[in-house]
Structure formats: structure tokens, C-alpha cells
Amino acid sequence: MRIALLLLAGLFSLTAQAAPAPVATFDRSHWPEQLDSPALFDVASRAEILGFARVLGESEKLDQGALAARLNLRQVNLLSINSVRQRLWQRLWRNYDLAQKSCEQDASFCYAIDDLADFRKQTASFEVAADSFYAGWVEPGRAFHEHYLNELLRKAALFPQTASEIERFSDLERNGDELNDRLFLLTFDGGPSLAGGSTDGLTEFLRRQRLGATFFVLGNNLQNRRDKTSLAELRALYKGQCVGLQGWQYRSHGQWQGWQDSVLRSQARVQGDLPEQYVPLFRPPYGQRRADSQAFFASQHLQVVLWDIDAQDQGPLSSEQSAQRVLTLMLLWRKGLIQFHDAQPKAQEVVAWLLKQTAQSGIGWEDCRNFGEKS
């Protein structure tokens, strides 16, 4: 009977999910201004917030069948989708309220909005005139917002049967929402690379920029790296950085029977090898973890850390496409944890591009040690 149920669950998973659509990308050349001041960052941020809010509102007019068809799914969890929508509305209004504080310096995309109800009403009729300075942004921006919303709603539609970063299981999990406005944290998954690989160049680059990032490492990768080099070289690799854990191997910790052992082994390895860089943070591969896992993590003095901005640097996007996606999401969410993969050579190129594009924008980079030691 148990085998039959497992087979049926697997069959449902295959029929409920189809291949996801290509990830959202946006060519920033469609935006006519450089983000070379805090006020211009806010102008672009207000535009992204209003544009995304409009397509979010339009999606609420779809019935369950139309929504499933749009997301290329057989079934959707409408309760989960509505919960995510409600959270998105709250955050969009909060972000817009912050972004409109500079309206006296530049009134572009500024409206007299005092609360969430007014915000929803305004965004429902949001338009940009055909002769506007920003007219060239409208259609490419709308396409990005629709594709990105589909990404979020698809994850919501599958949650919690397929866990992801779209929702927290408890307030003990962190996703960057607690950061201050305009503050971002660089995070990297799946490393370290082989000796002389992309992790080496990236950590050296970050040190030159006087930046500290959080690296969520795999226990087997860390052990192989140490065995083929030395403990001293491993510690030099992560000098000035923070190191959390991602389990012993890059595998879903949602259904794996050995997930607890994976966490404990990797925790012991990181604490033992990198005591100065260790931070008590765990990032689940693919964002997948058990809904009832919080007691275990609390017993190990670990916090689950998700993300809210993904670079999609493991897929087919070029480094420039990945960078422009991240910057657009930074404008939309105004703070958060950015997920990269340091085993991907493009990660350093993306970070370098972002630093150049935002140098005068008034944003900041959260200190990884400060973030990692918060309880």
C-alpha cells in the first residue's frame, strides 16, 4: 500500500508540474536614466513597483482554471497563491511609500497615495503616456513583470507540497525582509569550486572591494577542497568572508531521509575547518526543506536562510542578463538577499557589473558577520 501511495504521489507530481517558462529578463537599456543618485534610484524603483503591482492586480481577475493554464500547471494551490499575493501587496505598498520620500527632488511616478487601498486603486489604472520620456520602458518592463510574476505564482501554486523560497514556514526562517531599506546581502551557494576555480577569483575580488559575502558551502566540496590543498589554504580562501552551510551535498532536504545527517556533517566540517568564518546559517538547496524542521534547526542553533532576489546564474542567462535581472529586482524589492552560485564563473562578472551600476545610487551592502550573528 505504501509503495502504491508513493507511486501515486510521484505521478501527481509529474502531472501537476510542467516545464517552467523561461526566466524573466530585462534589458536595462530600455530605462533612459543612469542610477547615479539616490533620487534616480527611487524614480526607477517607483516605476518597477507600479508596473509590477499592475500586473499583480490583473492576475487576480483570473479564475483557478485560467491561472493554472497561465502557469502551465494541471492544478494550483489557490490558498497559497492568495497568501503570497497578499504578502506581495503589503511589501509593494511599503516599498512605494519609502520610494516616494524623494518625490520633492524628482516627481516622476509620484502620486498622492496614503495607504494600501489607495495604492491598489492607483496601480490598477497605472499608465505611461506614449510621448513620455519613459515610454520605451513600458512594454519591455511589462513583459518582465508578467514573466517574473509567473515565476512567483508558480512557486506559490506548488507550495507547500514543493517547498521553495516563496514562503517561510515560520518566523524563525529569514529571507532578508528584516534588512533596512536599500540594504542588500550578497550570498553564494554550492561551493567551493575546485582549487583555482571561480570561488578563488570571487573571494579575492570581494576582498579588494572590501565586501563580505555569505558563502553557503557543501560539506563534500569543502572536504575535497581541503584534502587536495590544505587547511591553511582553505582558510585563506574565505578570509574576510562568512561561511554558512548547505548540507553535505546539493540535494533537496525536503524529502531526503538523511537530511538531518547531511546538515550535522556539514556543520561539523565548517565549524571545524573555518571557525573564524563560520556563521550558524543553513540554506536549503532549491529552497526545499521540511515544514516540521524548525525544532531540529533550533536545537542545532541554526537559522534557515532563504532569499528574495535570484540571479538565475546557473541557467542559460549570460552574465549581463543575470546582472540586469538582479538590478531590476533590487529596484522592485529595495532590499534583500541576493542568491548567486560561486561555482559559476559568471557570478563575479555579475557582482562587478552591479557594483559599477549602483556605485552612486545610495544603496548599501549588509555586513555578512552582522547578518549572520543576528538571532
UniProtKB/TrEMBL annotation:
Enzyme class (EC, first level): hydrolase
E.C. no: 3.5.1.-
Query: Which Gene Ontology terms cover its molecular function?
Result: hydrolase activity, acting on carbon-nitrogen (but not peptide) bonds
The chain positions of domain NodB homology read 179-295
* Signal sequence range: 1-18
Q: Which Pfam families is this protein grouped with?
A: Polysacc_deac_1
What PANTHER family does this protein's entry cite?
A: GLYCOSYL TRANSFERASE-RELATED
Biological process (GO), any one: carbohydrate metabolic process
Q: What is this protein called?
A: Peptidoglycan-N-acetylmuramic acid deacetylase PdaC
Q: Which domain of life is it from?
A: Bacteria
Q: Which UniProt keywords apply?
A: Hydrolase, Signal
Question: Which residue windows are coiled coil?
Answer: none
